[in-house]
Structures are given as C-alpha cells and as structure tokens.
Amino acid sequence: MCEVLSIEAPGEITLVQEKLPAVPEGGFRVVTTYSGISAGTELTYVKGSNPYLSATWDPALGLFTEGTPSIGYPVRGIGYMQVGRVVETRTRAVREGALVAMAYGHRTGYVADPMTDRFVELPGDLDPMLGVFVAHMGPICANGLLHAATDLHGPSVRDLGDGVRGRRVAVVGAGVVGLLTASFALAYGAAEVVVVDETPARLDIAEALGTEVLTFDEDPAVELKRRWRHAPNDRGADVVFQCRGRPRALALALRLIRPQGTVIDLAFYTDGADEVRLGEEFHHNGLSLRSAQIGRVPRGLAHAWDRERLSYETIALLRQRGDGLREHVITDVVGFAEAPQFLADLAARRRHSVQAVLRDHVEDERG
Q: Distance between CA 191 and CA 88 in Å, rounded?
C-alpha cells in the first residue's frame, strides 16, 4: 500500500490509501524520498482554476473546447518533482538502491515501467533533495533558455548559453521558475542578470544567488532602459524571461525588452490577461512573445534537445550552483503526512513558500 495526495474538491485535500501492483517483469518499484510541490500548477487544482477542470483539451487540435472537462475531482497524484529510491527491480535498466528522479505525483510509492515511465538516475555527488528539480522543473527552465538561444541562432544552437552569453537578461518573477532560470543564465555567462519581483523576501533569495534585483515599485522598465543602451533609440534587456503567471508581470516584461526583442514566457495564466496592453510597447516596439511550454522544444530541435538532455543540463547546473539553491530556494521541508494541510494553507495564503518539499521520515532515518 502507499499513500496518495487527493484533491477531493476545491479546497478539500486528503491522503488516501492505494494498493500498488506487483512489479512486472521489466519494471521496478520505488519508495518516495522527496516530493517537490509546485505552488503554481498544483494550487490551480486546489483552487479549482485549472482549465482542464472546466473544458475539454483536444490534443489533436491543440484547443480547449466546451464539453466534458478533461479532468474531474477527485484529482489524485498531481505533482512532477519526485525522487524515489529503487527497492525492487526486475530490469537491468536500474539497480536496486538507486535514487531516481521521476514525475509520478505525490505518493509514497510507485511501480514503474521503463518503457513508459521516464526516470533519471541521480549521480552520487548530488544532494538527493535537489533531485526534485531534475525530472521536470529544471527542464522547464532549461527549455526557456533553449527558446532564447533559438530566437537568436535558429536551428544552429550549440548549447543553452547561446541565448544569454554576454547578454543583459531580465527575469520577471522570483518564484522557483524565475530563480532557476536566472541561475541558468548566470551559469551560462550572461553579462548581467536582473530579477524583478514584488516580494522583498524573494528578491533577497535572488540576490543571495548572485543576481541583481529590482522591485515593481522602482519602475524597472525606466531603470533598466536608462542603464542598458545598445544604440540610439534602442534600450532595454536583450532577453526577458517572464516567469510569473500574472498579467501585470507580462505587461512589465513587454516594457523591459529592447525594440524588436523577444520575451520568453514560461508562465501559466489561469485568470486571463486583461492588463496586457498590446497597443502600447508590444505594437510600437515590434516585440515578439514566445511561449516556452515544456511540452515542446523549439521547432526543429527535438532530435538534439529532448527531455533527457534538458535533465542532464539541470544536473550540471545543480553541480555548479546547487549549494545556493539548496540553501535559499528550498524554503520548506515537511513530512508527507502534513501535505494536505500545507497545500490548503498555501492556497489560502496562510503560508508562503518558494520551493516546498515533502519528505519521507523513514528514508531520513535510513540516512
């Protein structure tokens, strides 16, 4: 048996028991050691605002349409930042005792099939808790850099630094996505990285990671355009990564970018974008807006930049900058049994977190 996080209805969260199947030939079983919480995507299910809950997603058309919702309550096993220890294996693909990064949702155990379940074995020199970023969250941010590189070099991209190296980079939003994206930009040699956010505590984290920071109240568009000059009438960031799912943040990102520049958008908007005024900077400066959703890498690069490569780029980042990310970005570590109340508190804004991680206390005792 294992425990699974279940959202029974908006605001109603519990743990339910689930019987695990026997490990089939070619499969393996893991017990969860760490499970990272996505305070953005997961809370849309707690709040009832996720579009899958109110519309039908047609993958062939790429459209949300009226009809039976694609997902209904109870919603179980959400989450995409798991680290598990292999406790039983019937395949040579992974050894017993290995730690693997996967995306199988908040559950204390899982039976995997290597033919259908993606997993990344974590190297022994990596802090296991940082493994929550390896399967999905890190690749989300790496894919943002890949889109920036493609915007500049087309299909001739050689590495993730091609879009930021030597360039002046602005990151809007100091949540996990923004902080990891800023860390990637620093690691790949950006000339300057400035993170913009409304929350002083989050800006303190960005500063501790080595970026410069600005608040929304400081009119960051005017500040950066006075500072970052390319030519007469050509001022602003070379590239902006928009990492906060609020219309105000997107509107600001469009103000920060230089004329004919591109905003790489990694955010998830669930409430529309009424504050985004496309008749102003977007129109007059000839801007581009590219969604860097993790479901796709830039067109023409899938053969060279699959999810596996993005995961290993994440491991390289964690090896270089993991100590700072572990110290400053992972702000909450709680027991799995505390997960329902913790998510409820996050959704109700009774508690604030950057990256929260659910921990298996039994695994801690094993050491």
A: 47
First to last CA, the chain: 23
CA atoms of 79 and 319, how far apart (whole Å): 24
- pLDDT value of residue 366: 43
The whole-angstrom separation of Cα 40 and Cα 283 is: 30
Residue 48: closest CA among 23, 75, 68, 80: 75
Q: Amino acid identity, residue 73?
A: Y
Do residues 21 and 321 lie in contact, with contact meaning Cβ atoms separated by under 8 Å? no
Which pTM value belongs to this model? 0.93
Q: What is the DSSP string of 288-328?
A: EEEE--TT-PSTT-TTTS-HHHHHHHHHHHHHHHHHHHHHH
Q: What is the pLDDT of residues 22-73, one digit of tens each?
A: 999 999 999 999 999 998 888 999 999 899 999 999 988 889 998 899 999 9
Neighbours of 288 (CB within 10 A): 12
- pLDDT tens per residue, range 71-97: 999 999 899 999 999 999 999 999 999
- State CA 302 to chain mean position distance: 19
Gap between the Cα atoms of 274 and 226, Å rounded: 28
Altogether, the residues listed in the chain come to a count of: 367
Residue 107 and residue 159: Cα distance in Å, rounded?
35
Encoded amino acid at 243, one letter: C
Task: Using DSSP bridges, classify how beta strands 330-335 and 355-359 pair: parallel, antiparallel or unpaired.
Answer: parallel
Question: What type of residue sits at position 350?
Answer: R
